[in-house]
């Protein structure tokens, strides 16, 4: 198994190369790059200054039209040199690959910080939302799904199915707004804080106070993400266990006198959990990054999802490719962990021999 893990780690390199290469040239071909963004901003500022200082209407209109036709070619060339777009695209591509081998993502084009600094600053929010949401979803969904499978068609199964359906029908961002209205001083109770990962006086608190303050800030955003994410996993767990419970080997084990708990957790569990483990990487990456974007906006949390979105809108290429690199690398590594979990749950699965 160690040799298989090593081979998978080696495959990460060409896979990341393909991801970065494909996205680099697609983004380069897209209109509205950082140079265009900077030129548009400078033209907008010129138009505002012309409008503010114009005397008569004719002079103002004439100056404004001159500003809108473009900037001086020397200014445009300076902008290109500032952003590094005075070099051919292949030089920028190979320079980026060389820098990425040392995890040097460069500096943001529009933010006064390095890409690494921005990612490090935003990482605590994404880790908090993704980690706690994934952990709670799995701790709730798997036992609930198993219980529903064992008590199929019972009263418990019926009313929990209604809860799951309602939770699945309400989008996470809409549920977040509802939580704010109810519990964050919107219209009823002012119990939980509305924004931020911690309070302003966080540094002055004791270690227990810091834990309590952090947990208090996480209640509403994590709850919103959990409610929107546990429904699918609960039904997947139930259906997977139902499929295994009705198989012949389960009936044979019961006929030999095995208890229901032994049959369920020794024989059924490892077979039913395979499909759930298979979906873990996609679930984790979704909750860790893309799934938390609207939650970050609603609760004023600056995480990686919001950082990537802002970089895409602003065409901040270093931040775009830096976050893409981190997202892709984590997805590939989590996929390897998922394969290792297969072998841990069911030792009959041996990837190394295939």
From TrEMBL:
- UniProt keyword terms in alphabetical order: Cell membrane, Membrane, Transmembrane, Transmembrane helix, Transport
Which Pfam families does the protein's record reference?
BPD_transp_1
Q: Where in the cell is it found?
A: Cell membrane
Where's the ABC transmembrane type-1 domain? Answer: 123-342
Q: Which InterPro entries match?
A: MetI-like (IPR000515), MetI-like_sf (IPR035906)
Instruction: Name the source's superkingdom.
Output: Bacteria
From the record, give the transmembrane residue ranges.
129-146, 158-184, 214-237, 272-299, 319-345
- Asked if the record carries the keyword S-adenosyl-L-methionine, the reply is no
Q: Does the keyword Transmembrane apply?
A: yes
Could you tell me the membrane topology recorded for this protein? Multi-pass membrane protein
Regarding protein family, the annotation reads: Belongs to the binding-protein-dependent transport system permease family.
Protein known as: Microcin C ABC transporter permease YejB
What is the protein's species of origin? Gilvimarinus gilvus
């Amino acid at each position: 198994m160690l040799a298989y893990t090593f081979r998978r780690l080696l495959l990460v390199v060409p896979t990341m190369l393909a991801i970065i290469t494909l996205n680099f040239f697609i983004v380069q071909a897209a209109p509205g790059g950082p140079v265009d963004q900077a030129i548009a901003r400078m033209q907008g500022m010129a138009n505002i200054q012309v409008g503010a200082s114009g005397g008569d209407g004719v002079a103002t209109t004439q100056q404004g039209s001159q500003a809108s036709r473009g900037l001086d070619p020397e200014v445009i060339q300076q902008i290109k040199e500032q952003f590094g777009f005075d070099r051919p695209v292949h030089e920028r591509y190979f320079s980026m690959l060389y820098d990425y081998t040392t995890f040097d993502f460069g500096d943001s084009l529009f933010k006064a910080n390095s890409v690494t600094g921005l990612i490090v600053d935003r990482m605590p929010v994404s880790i908090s939302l993704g980690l706690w949401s994934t952990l709670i979803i799995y701790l709730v969904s798997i036992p609930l799904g198993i219980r529903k499978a064992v008590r199929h068609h019972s009263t418990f199964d019926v009313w929990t199915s209604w809860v799951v359906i309602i939770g699945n029908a309400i989008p996470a961002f809409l549920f977040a707004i509802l939580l704010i209205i109810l519990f964050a001083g919107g219209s009823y109770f002012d119990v939980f804080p509305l924004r931020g990962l911690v309070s302003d006086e966080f540094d002055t608190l004791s270690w227990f106070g810091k834990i309590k303050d952090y947990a208090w800030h996480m209640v509403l955003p994590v709850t919103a993400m959990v409610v929107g994410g546990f429904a699918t996993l609960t039904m997947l767990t139930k259906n997977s266990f139902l499929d295994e419970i009705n198989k012949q080997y389960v009936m044979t084990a019961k006929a030999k006198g095995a208890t229901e708990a032994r049959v369920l957790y020794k024989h059924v569990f490892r077979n039913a959990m395979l499909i759930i483990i298979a979906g873990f990487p996609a679930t984790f990456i979704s909750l860790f990054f893309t799934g938390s974007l609207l939650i970050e906006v609603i609760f004023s949390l600056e995480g990686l999802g919001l950082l990537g979105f802002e970089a895409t809108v602003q065409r901040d290429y270093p931040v775009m490719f830096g976050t893409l690199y981190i997202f892709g690398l984590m997805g590939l590594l989590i996929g390897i962990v998922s394969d290792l979990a297969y072998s841990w749950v069911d030792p009959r699965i041996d990837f190394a021999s295939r």
